[in-house]
Specification:
By secondary structure, this protein is an alpha/beta fold. It has a single domain, classed as Rossmann fold (3-Layer(aba) Sandwich), CATH 3.40.50. Helices cover about 50% and strands about 15% of the residues. The protein has a six-stranded mixed β-sheet with strand order 3-2-1-4-6-5, with helices on both faces. A hairpin with a 2-residue loop joins strand 5 and strand 6. The longest helix is centred in the middle third of the chain and has 14 residues.
Length: about 130
């Protein structure tokens, strides 16, 4: 199964123990992660913010790992408008990479549970179903 990880999940995986690191590990170990250059850039930019300074090395290591194991695609152009336009690249990447799941902690930014073949799941939902 192909999976896209929202930046908030990757940041939380670097900062905490629990569901987000577990979801990230499940995605990497048992599924195929899909990335795009804009997503990788966001991981690195957000991970370098001062409020994440203590977790910067962990965030960089996670991003480096994801770049090594993921399928890289160019985000698909689509006509879907989301509440937070920054999330549109995640949906475009999922669509371009034939991902079945987009894991996000911000499901409120995705008003529908599914966009075509892409199902929107929280880390908890992903772990409950696939972990």
């Amino acid at each position: 199964m192909r999976v896209v990880l929202d930046c908030n999940v990757v940041i939380a995986a670097a900062r905490t123990d629990g569901l987000c690191p577990a979801a990230l590990l499940t995605a990497v170990r048992h599924h195929q992660v899909v990335l795009s250059e804009p997503i990788t850039r966001e991981y690195r930019t957000v991970g370098a913010r001062p409020k994440h300074r203590a977790y910067h090395a962990t965030m960089q290591a996670i991003t480096d790992l994801l770049e090594k194991v993921a399928i890289a695609v160019e985000p698909a152009k689509h006509s879907i408008t989301l509440e937070d336009s920054d999330d549109e690249v995640y949906l475009g990447t999922a669509l371009a990479g034939d991902a079945e799941i987009l894991i996000t902690g911000n499901v409120r930014h995705f008003p529908f549970p599914r966009y075509g073949a892409v199902q929107i799941l929280t880390p908890s939902e992903f772990q409950a179903r696939y972990g």
